[in-house]
Amino acid sequence: xxxxxxxxxxxxxxxxxxxxxxxxxxxxxxxxxxxxxxxxxxxxxxxxxxxxxxxxxxxxxxxxxxxxxx
Length: 70
Description:
Blueprint: E1 11-12, E2 19-20, E3 31-35, E4 39-44, H1 48-54, E5 59-61, E6 67-69
Antiparallel strand pairs: 1-2, 3-4, 3-5, 5-6
C-alpha cells in the first residue's frame, strides 16, 4: 500500500518565533515609511522598489509586518 507523501509545513522565522506560514494573517496593505525601522509618517502604499526610490532613510513594511530598510 502506497501512502501519499506529505510535505512538512513551511515556517517563517521573520517573527519572534517560528510560526507556520498558514497561521500568519496578512495585513491589508504594504506601507512605505518616512524613517528607518518602519517609523515616522506613512508616505504611501508603494511597492518596495518605488518606496526606496522615494528617498534615502525610508523603510517599507510588507503585508506580513516585516520591515525592510531602503
